[in-house]
Design brief:
The protein is α+β, with helices and mostly antiparallel strands and about 220 residues long. The chain is built from 5 helices and 9 strands, in the order αββαββαββββαβα. The chain starts with 6 loop residues before the first helix and ends with a helix.
Length: about 220
Amino acid sequence: MTWMKNKFVRALSLVLALQAIILYTTVTRAEIIPAVRPLFEFPTAFGDWKMVRDVPIEKEVQDILKADDTLNRVYLNLGYHVEANLFIGFFKTQRTGQSPHSPKNCLPGSGWEPTQTGLVSIPVAGLREPILANRYVAAHGDDKAVVIYWYQSHQRIIASEYAAKFWLVADSIRYHRSDTALVKLVLPVPHNDVDFATRIGIDMAQAVFPDLAKQLPH
């Protein structure tokens, strides 16, 4: 039984147990699928940010992601003249197995590798407490990017993938819902200044959050 002392094994066992609970509690109950506006209606401007282009998502990526709706845009900060990527993947239900993939798990296949990982606290309008989001630095050769992402369900902001699984079970039992969204911001790192890119990412998160709260179901 020494294998149970392994943290990865314990975490995997917890995820499998939670998935079993979800299956048991939802298969006999009708799930509530919330009404939500299509993501192409998401504002093209917020704060000092203005959309400059849509970025098509390749079919192979869509097939792996299995999101019900996606948004992948580049916005320009009019004050700093810096471009950043905004990605939103919305999942109406996770009952049939589709769920957000951690962005960190997708990086190695695209040639990017995480070099720093951690959390960042972001004060946002409309909430008394700052939101806690994931922040990591990815490198591809000499290029670097700061990535900030979180999971958003019922106006609840979750950084941890394991906490997201816990709330999935709780919401499936209480509300008969399993919808969620992955929100990801990607900021280029100019002149190797990670702190600057992080500040711009926080600014973008603060600017976009009110529109996210309106767009995604409560």
